[in-house]
Automatic annotation (TrEMBL):
Name of the protein in question: Alpha-mannosidase
Family stated for the protein in its record: Belongs to the glycosyl hydrolase 38 family.
Pfam families, alphabetized: Alpha-mann_mid (PF09261), Ams1-like_1st (PF22907), Glyco_hydro38C2 (PF17677), Glyco_hydro_38C (PF07748), Glyco_hydro_38N (PF01074)
EC number, as in UniProt: 3.2.1.24
InterPro entries listed in its UniProt record: Ams1-like_N, Gal_mutarotase_sf_dom, GH38_C, Glyco_hydro/deAcase_b/a-brl, Glyco_hydro_38_C, Glyco_hydro_38_cen, Glyco_hydro_38_cen_sf, Glyco_hydro_38_N
Alphabetical GO biological process terms: mannose metabolic process; oligosaccharide catabolic process
Keywords (A to Z) from UniProt: Glycosidase, Hydrolase, Metal-binding
EC primary class: hydrolase
GO terms for MF: alpha-mannosidase activity; carbohydrate binding; metal ion binding
Source taxonomy: Eukaryota, Fungi, Dikarya, Ascomycota, Pezizomycotina
SMART domains per record: Alpha-mann_mid (SM00872)
């Protein structure tokens, strides 16, 4: 017989109805909301206010200055109060706060909300805590009063008049919604914006009520997120309902009752019952080094964010926080030394984790190969010197695509792992992988993870945890994922609320199976090492070959043209300076300006940040970069003069400087050509001279012979002609281009080239960032212009083309063809080169959301085109067979793009442009855009650039196009007469390029970096006109990999080197007495 407790009653006593889930969910919101029920719900118990205990005085800093603590607090402060407004945008206001601290039992907090960012400083001048005002998820207005503070206490708030995302957004979202121009964060800053001091008060936090709040919030979040048909969701929803029923606002004991109920799902379970952790959580704070705010504000953002994280680590010992970008650490060291020392202390304890190994979170589309190397070299060396660590994980969560040579360079810099999430932003094809082997151009691979949550700003909620599994692209290979939590982009980082939720979700995942088990990981390295171990050294993971092309933000290939031009020029200058100063060091004992070169490199690397160089920052940033580049160029000119002076010969006169490692002949322009017998005068003494160089170094300035070029007009058509090319121009367009030796017309019948095309450029949202595929549907050709002859030969023939783009914009082009020179040729080892047609442009650009390109079409049969990338060449389709193909309607190129068929091809060279497209037989070089956000004046005004058309016989790998691209960007230079420099050349393999010659980072060794440029193995001899005592193949950090035999020669030393396809090789050599 059953016991009485188990008997089933015969009669029903109380009717029971189905629970209405939608009503229970709505009730949950009312229990924790700050709306009409906040006076009687759980919110009403969270804080007890202590009014009339705060006195506020202010000093408003004039002229957007950023004074030090000492300078600011030495000024006169005036009384102010809550309700006052402060501005304008970007101004700084120092508030002196005096509080009267009451007796309290729980946690006393000072709440400050000026709807802007701020930093709390002690009376002694120590910055201790960051603040973020406003009403968004990144809000952080509380400062916990230290228990040591008693009675009356004074401290300071340094308030910066900008929000977390700059100064564009309005606080009144009722005006037109979140994407109305008044509220949209990517709109240009509002210079006269005012910020309301909304809150300044002392409150006492009820810690028991807060604990219940976090308990309830996590349970309710799970109930809301999990499938309503699942038992897990019903369990959470039912428990939330019980807690609400048990809560009595006027009975504090009910809080304990409610917490005991919550323990049904949130109680710590025995170790043997814990689920396996598959979601590894790490705190993170992505701080854009510049974006919707200038560099100066970033320095404050770093200090505010990281000081707050140190405080969180003290309060939550389990907290682990990863931060990248050596530049930001260096800024913190210089400007906030006390915070920096606290950070170092937490690094030593393992809570604060430097990561990434690069100087900044850089763009990888536009920097040169050497710049990518320097990002890693300067980043890793900083972390090694400051903290004794070498980063193993490359950390670029927000960069707009990833170059195909990165895997090789990362491995050479000691980083086998890579993290990002940006590929989730594709707007045409969903990127299929989360954890995979990324295989680069040379077949090097890095173990790569992309967070399935598709964010680096996770808030720690049930939806994110579920997405870590449901959105994982490689569960069959490895089901683990990384959760980066914390507010970011504008800084901030994790909040205490996130850590509270994380603790409870860890417990909830042990009792509610539908919640993936989440746990805090000690270090990101451990996450990747775990994957490597579980996948048999990565061998069971899928692979992705080649570039990680982001199907988004393609407009950044062109935006902010001046910055891209300055970057290219700075990279070239630094390359040449390092060569000249190394030669001065090793031949003359001249001091190598390492510190100055380092500062120049660091500035250039800074400007390669992934919002700066791509062109997606506010105007203030580009005002800063203009100054930075000017200073870099100024330092460079000084170093160049000093190096050339050290290398000078005793006699007066001029020398020809070739900074590339192959022979070449070019036409140069001189102010005085009177002493040259075959010069072409264009204006009294000024004119053109044909000269040649046998290779890297200096030589006497001497003429070479040539076959002349001519220009003439025939029925309105202008013909430029030499022995190799015949080019016909009408109205500025090329209507015929004939290879004279083959009698081959290069243009399709009835089609012209060099056509200026103006496209409508209205992306869906991201103005400076995006150009969408629909822009190709709406365009007009710029009308033909007036053509006049400028240079008549025999060395250079040129015509000037004047075209009106619109009522307010025009472009003037000088189209030139040179004589065929008989001097040293850069084509040794390749098919003979043809002449190139050069176009030098000056443009007055005053457009609104228009996109200017120059268009060519060639009579060539192809299904792919070749584009120079860092340290190599990448091939992309010219068709649209699949959506993956059509998504590449705009791609990145460096110094050239090329199309060819068997036996023939044409390359387009450029001096500063990176956007390109090849659709069938049509090529377009992207020239200028005119977005209006976040910089309303982007690219407006005068622009100068040049490009060239280079036909070549044979396919790309049979031609010297790579060298031609270098020549176009680094022409021969005339310098004061120099002593003969040591000859350095790469012989026996024309497909190998000697890219870099410099002094070693430590010591006085000679470092030379070369790469295989075409995609095939090579055996080369590096001949160096110096006495090399020893040599080693090294990694990027100049750590030895293996020794290289040095052979003595009559002119110095020789090294035999083997290259794999697209391999980058670094040689470190010890130089004997000079």
């Amino acid at each position: 017989m059953s016991s009485p407790a188990m008997q089933y009653s015969r009669y029903s006593e109380t009717p029971k109805a189905h629970q209405i889930d939608s009503l229970r969910q709505a009730r949950i919101e009312g229990f924790i909301s700050q709306d009409q029920w906040k006076g009687i719900n759980l919110q009403s118990l969270l804080y007890k206010k202590h009014p009339n205990r705060v006195a506020i005085e202010v000093y408003s800093v004039p002229d957007l200055q950023r004074p030090s603590f000492e300078a600011a607090t030495a000024n006169e402060f005036n009384p102010t109060a809550v309700g006052a407004q402060f501005g304008p945008a970007w101004s700084t206001h120092w508030f002196r706060i005096t509080i009267e601290i009451p007796d309290y039992k729980d946690k006393l907090e000072f709440h400050w909300d000026s709807n802007s960012e701020g930093m709390i400083w002690t009376e002694d001048g120590e910055p201790i805590h960051g603040l973020t005002g406003g009403h968004f998820q990144d809000r952080r207005v509380e400062f916990i009063i230290p228990r040591s503070w008693q009675g009356k206490k004074t401290f300071f708030v340094e308030a910066s008049m900008n929000g977390m995302f700059g100064c564009a957004q309005c606080l009144d979202l009722s005006i037109g919604g979140p994407h109305h121009p008044a509220n949209d964060i990517i709109q240009p800053p509002k210079a006269d914006r005012q910020f309301l001091l909304e809150t300044a008060e002392l409150v006492e936090a009820d810690q028991d009520a807060w604990a219940l709040y976090w308990d309830f919030l996590v349970i309710a979040d799970a109930a809301r997120t999990l499938s309503s048909n699942s038992w897990e969701a019903q369990k959470c929803l039912g428990l939330a309902n019980e807690i609400m029923n048990a809560f009595q606002r006027d009975d504090r004991s009910s809080i304990s009752t409610c917490r005991l109920l919550a323990e049904r799902l949130l109680k710590e379970v025995p170790v043997e019952r814990k689920q396996s952790t598959i979601v590894s959580a790490i705190g993170h704070c992505h701080i854009d080094t510049a974006w919707l705010w200038p560099f100066g504000e970033t320095k404050s953002k770093v200090a505010r964010s990281w000081a707050t994280q140190v405080d969180l680590m003290d309060r939550y010992p389990e907290h682990r926080f990863a931060a990248s970008q050596a530049q930001q650490y260096k800024w913190l060291r210089a400007d906030y030394p006390s915070i920096y020392e606290n950070v170092k202390r937490k690094i030593k304890s393992g809570q604060f984790i430097p990561i990434g190994g690069s100087w900044v979170e850089n763009d990888t589309n536009f920097p040169s190969g050497e710049s990518l190397c320097r990002q890693l070299i300067y980043g890793q060396r900083f972390f090694q010197k400051e903290f004794g660590i070498t980063c193993k994980v490359f950390w670029l969560p927000d960069t707009f695509g990833y170059a195909s040579q990165l895997p090789q360079l990362l491995r050479l810099a000691g980083m086998p792992y890579f993290f990002t999430q940006k590929m989730s932003w594709n707007n045409i094809n969903k990127f299929p992988n989360s954890t995979f082997n990324w295989v680069g151009l040379d077949n090097t691979q890095v173990l790569t993870h992309m967070a399935p949550t598709e964010t680096y700003n996770a808030q720690v909620n049930a939806e994110e945890l579920q997405k870590s599994v449901s959105n994982h692209g490689n569960l069959a290979e490895d089901n683990h994922s990384l959760l980066l939590y914390g507010n970011g982009d504008g800084g901030g980082g994790p909040l205490a609320a996130m850590l509270e939720r994380l603790d409870r979700f860890q417990k909830l995942s042990d009792t509610v199976g539908a919640i993936p088990r989440v746990g805090i990981i000690n270090h990101v390295d451990e996450f990747f090492e775990g994957i490597q171990k579980r996948t048999q050294g990565g061998t069971t993971l899928v692979t992705w070959h080649g570039e990680l092309y982001l199907e988004f933000h393609r407009g950044t290939y062109t935006s902010q043209a001046r910055t891209k031009l300055n970057n290219r020029r700075a990279e070239i200058m630094l390359r040449e300076l390092e060569y000249l100063t190394s030669m001065a060091l090793f031949t003359k004992g001249h001091d190598y300006p390492k510190d100055t070169l380092d500062s120049m490199w660091e500035d250039v690397l800074l400007c390669q940040f992934h919002d700066v160089l791509p062109g997606s920052c506010i105007e203030m940033v580009y005002e800063d970069t203009t100054v930075i580049y000017e200073e870099v160029m100024k330092k460079g000119r000084s170093i160049r003069e000093e190096a050339l002076a050290a290398l000078s010969a005793d006699a007066d006169g001029l020398s020809l400087l070739n900074t590339l490692s192959w022979p070449r002949s070019e036409i140069i322009k001189l102010d005085d050509v009177s002493r040259f017998s075959n010069a072409q005068n264009d204006n009294e003494a000024r004119g053109f001279v044909a000269v040649g160089s046998d290779g890297l170094g200096t030589t006497d300035l001497a003429e070479v012979t040539y076959t002349p070029v001519t220009v003439y007009e025939e029925n309105g058509t202008f013909i430029l002609q030499n022995d190799q090319l015949r080019v016909c121009i009408f109205g500025g367009e090329i209507v015929s281009m004939i290879d004279q030796g083959l009698s081959r017309e290069l243009l399709p019948q009835g089609v012209s080239g060099n056509r200026m095309v103006l496209f409508d450029d209205q992306p869906l949202y991201w103005d400076a960032w995006d150009v969408e595929i629909h822009h190709l549907e709406k365009y007009q050709y710029v009308k033909p212009g007036k053509v006049t002859i400028v240079d008549k030969g025999p060395l250079r023939a040129s015509v000037k083309v004047e075209q009106q783009i619109s009522e307010s914009s025009w472009i003037t082009s000088i189209i030139s063809l040179d004589a065929v020179l008989d001097g040293p040729s850069y084509t040794e080892g390749f098919n003979d080169a043809l002449s190139q047609l050069q176009v030098e442009c000056e443009c007055e650009w005053r457009e609104d959301r228009k996109f200017l390109k120059v268009e060519f079409a060639w009579d060539l049969c192809n299904t792919s085109a070749d584009y120079e990338t860092q340290f190599g060449i990448i091939r992309r389709p010219t068709h649209s067979n699949t959506t993956w193909d059509s998504a590449r309607f705009e791609v990145v190129c460096h110094k050239f793009a090329n199309v060819d068929e068997f036996g023939y091809g044409v390359a387009i060279l450029n001096d500063s442009k990176y956007g390109f497209s090849t659709h069938g037989r049509t090529q377009r070089l992207s020239l200028l855009r005119s977005p209006k956000a976040p910089d309303a004046h982007a690219d407006m005004g005068r622009q100068r650039f040049k490009y060239a058309i280079l036909p070549h016989r044979g396919m790309l790998n049979q031609s010297a196009v790579v060298r031609a691209g270098f020549n176009f960007n680094s022409p021969l230079q005339v310098v004061p007469r120099c002593a003969k420099l040591p000859a350095i050349s790469m012989d026996g393999a024309p497909n190998v390029v000697l890219e870099t010659i410099k002094r070693s980072e430590d010591g006085t060794d000679l470092v030379m970096r070369a790469y295989e440029a075409y995609g095939g193995a090579a055996n080369a001899t590096l001949n160096v006109g110096l006495n090399l005592k020893s040599a080693f193949k090294a990694n990027l950090l100049e750590e030895d990999i293996e020794s290289v035999e040095v052979r003595s020669t009559s002119t110095g030393s020789a090294l035999s080197l083997c290259f794999k396809a697209f391999e980058v090789v670094t040689i470190r050599a010890c130089v004997g007495e000079f």
